[in-house]
Amino acid sequence: MAPEAAIDPPKTPDSEPLFTKLRNPSTGEATLYLFNSGAQQLFEVKAFHEERRSWFIGQTVQQDGRLLFVTPMDPLFLILYYLIKADKEQGKFQPIDQVVLDSEYPDCPLLLKCADVKQYIQHITEEKEIGSQKFHKYSQEKTLKWLKKKVNQTVKALKSNNILVGERVLASTFINSKQITDAQEDYVRYAHGLISEYIPEDLSKELLKYLGLPELRSPAPEPPLKKKKLSDVPVEPQEDYTKFNSDNLKTKKANTKMSAAQKALAKVDKSGMKSISAFFSSKSKTSK
User: Fold this and answer.
1) Cα–Cα 20 to 30 A to 285, which of 46, 121, 199, 275?
2) Rounded CA gap, 193 and 163, in Å?
3) pLDDT less than 70: residues of the chain
């Protein structure tokens, strides 16, 4: 599933849409992205995958049953990864095309071809111009200010789409969610979590402080319950259980009261009577 901008027909034969792996700005791991025709826009690609799932295409079965979701993404997040890395290693102003280089991901320079990147790069860098050439260096202060705007835009989108966050998520199943109003902090914290998926962990912590949000801490574990001290005195049975042996049980069973029918049957004279099993025994053969 992709927006039309991602699959626009190429303007030239060598500018077709391109699926490629780039470095994830949060984890640094390989992640699948899509450049539209001419690499004017970057899209994030996420796959929904279930086992034993296939697609029927015409008269054929496509074994790969994944469902790909393609959504627009700001390329500055990926460029930010390389700016932070260069600042830690060198800490100096450089041409941006010398910063966004990666031998493991040769397509990463295409990020600089995306529309308006060179215009908006100033939101996350300090800039110097010498002659006709511009040099850039990572600026944490500018980056935090830019990320805060991203958080505020995300909060606005959450509210306008009536997306529940905070306590309303837990309460909406049980009571009318209109009775509970989400605090602004709940929205900001939720938006911070979404943005943090696209920035390094250290920067995420700095952004949390910049937003004025206290860091959530896991509750302290409860102390273990005190065990009752066992006495060292040996425990002896309070009753004599040997009286319930098998002999006593047989005597007890024999002494149980008989019903009226059983008493009447006992008084009947059984002499000359055959047992009922005698009628079902095989007859002896007579000799001829």
Assistant:
1) 275
2) 15
3) 1-15, 50, 55, 63, 65, 166-182, 217-288
The pTM (predicted TM-score) of the whole model is 0.66
Q: Which of 134, 75, 132, 160 is nearest to 109 (CA)?
A: 75
Estimate to the nearest angstrom the gap between the alpha carbon of 40 and the chain centroid. Answer: 32
Angstrom CA distances, 93 to 88, 99, 127, stand at 12, 10, 8
pLDDT given for residue 183 in this prediction: 83
What are the pLDDT digits (tens) for 251-277? 555 555 666 666 666 666 666 666 666
Residues 118, 140: Cα–Cα separation, whole Å: 18
| C-alpha to C-alpha distance for 276 and 221, rounded to whole angstroms | 75
Phi (first) and psi of residue 160, to 5 degrees: -65, -25
Residue 252 C-alpha from the chain's centroid? 66
Residue 26: CB partners within 8 Å, gap ≥ 6? 196, 197, 198, 199, 200, 201
How many Cα atoms sit within 13 Å of 83 on the Cβ side?
28
What is the per-residue pLDDT for 165?
85
Beta bridge pairs of residue 130: 133
Record the tokens describing residue 99, joined without a space: 């910063």
Distance from CA of residue 85 to its chain's centroid? Answer: 29
**Rounded CA separation 147/134 (Å):** 23
Length reported for the chain:
288
Give start and end residues of each alpha helix (H) in 161-228.
Answer: 167-171, 184-195, 201-210
What are the DSSP calls for 146-178, one per residue? HHHHHHHHHHHHHHHTT---THHHHHTTTS-GG
